[in-house]
Design a protein that fits this description.
The protein has 193 residues and is α/β, with parallel strands linked by helices. The chain has a single domain, classed as 3-Layer(aba) Sandwich (Rossmann fold). The chain is built from 6 helices and 7 strands; from the N terminus they run E-H-E-E-E-H-E-E-H-E-H-H-H. Strands 2-3-4-1-5-7-6 form a 7-stranded mixed sheet, sandwiched between helices. Strand 2 and strand 3 form a beta hairpin. The chain is globular, with a radius of gyration of 15 Å.
Length: 193
């Protein structure tokens, strides 16, 4: 089984914010694959389906972003999965809006939700799909208000492009693995900001 966990903050207050891009990707995958993500399980809303013969479980943690690892680790334990079966989808303020980046392992890059996942799973060898949300340079003092802000109408086209790429990268990860997803979707050319 493959497990895809989208990171975000639960509740209407955070719906549609930049920090909840991981939730947006999971909701789009659920629609694409015909999976209902409503069952409460392991501090998450989850749903299971099949993609190209591979069982896939989608999860939206019900914890706050900075405790996302509790949900991810509980799901891995519940289904007796190795962290190599996990793909974490999260926002990335260092990547331009419309770009994505897939990695097989590494540090949290300053993302508190990803840091929680790495801490709770006790490994940096967790595949992650980062979805760019940057539209302008953002200093440390503005970061919280930026990531908790909503997208502007003028950003919707580039957001849609990024979400489409993220969906396709998730499908490649399920069908062919993380190396294939990295080779296909990690681009060197940066989108204009």
């Amino acid at each position: 089984m493959k497990l895809i966990v989208g990171l975000g903050n639960p509740g209407p207050r955070y719906s549609g914010t930049r920090h909840n891009v991981g939730f947006l990707v999971i909701k789009r995958l659920a629609e694409r694959w015909g999976i209902s993500v409503k069952s409460p399980l392991c501090h998450s809303k989850t749903g299971e389906g099949t993609v190209s013969g591979e069982p896939v479980r989608l999860a939206l943690p019900e914890t706050m972003m900075n405790q996302s690892g509790e949900a991810a680790a509980a799901l891995l334990k519940r289904f007796r999965l190795d962290p190599s079966s996990l793909l974490v989808v999260c926002d990335d303020a260092a990547l331009p809006l419309g770009m994505i980046r897939v990695r097989s392992k590494g540090s949290d890059g300053g993302h508190q939700g990803l840091a929680s996942v790495l801490q709770e799973t006790r490994t940096e060898a967790v595949a992650r799909l980062r979805v760019g949300i940057r539209t302008k340079p953002v200093g440390p003092e503005e970061m919280i208000s930026f990531v908790l802000g909503r997208f502007f109408p003028s950003e919707k086209k580039r957001l849609e492009e990024g979400l489409e790429l993220a969906e396709a990268a998730c499908e490649t990860w399920v069908r062919q693995g993380v190396s294939a997803a990295m080779n296909k979707f990690n681009r060197r050319v940066e989108c204009p900001v």
